[in-house]
């Protein structure tokens, strides 16, 4: 801001200097001319004082801008995002205090302020996320497998209504109920279970695990990288070089 004032200040200084030169060239005799000259002199002094104040203000603004720019350069690159996050957290804390003072539930008040468009956008964003974070332990892997299998189950509501009419309250067992041998699965249910098991077996067969090291294999490499290269070369060109390799091993190569 201050740097933009300097060209105007220099132009005004040049105009004042030109006026002084013109007054030196044209001198008017008499008291009237002296009063007019004095008035012009006061006007020039006033304008000089104004220019001096403007220059001081411009230098002050330039210094402040230099200090602010140096502060911004010293800040971390993600400072703006952190600052916005902190301001948002402060606003959330203030809203929670206001809701607690009024005896209201903050989560309910927050949901009332969300528009339908934002709610739909968040739901779509949640569906796009992959909930599988990878292997952590066997219990978590088993739980993910159980949830995946239960999501695939499509309940037969008609059969459920028939069983409820047939057994009544006995359909909902308690700790005193005897269940062993009382349930006979239907043929459709057994077929669904068999189809699901076959699908799981087929999926497991597609998994590729690291092959174990073979101690009896020929060592034709100098390091692990060279071994990988030799395996690829054998896979693509082995059938063309098999005879040459055999001749070299027998010592009959030409």
Q: How would you portray this structure in words?
A:
It is a single chain. This protein is an all-alpha fold. Among the domains are: 33-75; 96-127, no CATH class. The protein contains 9 helices and no strands. The two termini are 88 Å apart. Involved in pre-mRNA splicing as component of the spliceosome.
Quickly describe the structure.
The protein is built from 9 helices and no strands. The protein is mostly helical. Among the domains are: 33-75; 96-127, no CATH class.
Q: Mind describing the biggest β-sheet?
A: none
Helix fraction by DSSP (H/I, runs of at least 4): over 70%
Low-confidence segments, given as residue ranges, are 23-28
Tally of individual helices: 9
Q: Whole-number radius of gyration?
A: 45 Å
What are the secondary-structure elements, in order, as H or E?
Answer: HHHHHHHHH
Beginning-to-end CA distance, first to last residue = 88 Å
Structural class: mainly alpha
What share of residues are in beta strands?
under 5%
Average pLDDT over all residues: 79
Identify the overall geometry.
Answer: flat
Count of strand segments: 0
Subunit structure: May be part of a spliceosome complex.
Keywords: mRNA processing, mRNA splicing, Nucleus, Spliceosome
Organism: Vidua chalybeata (Village indigobird)
Protein name: Pre-mRNA-splicing factor SYF2
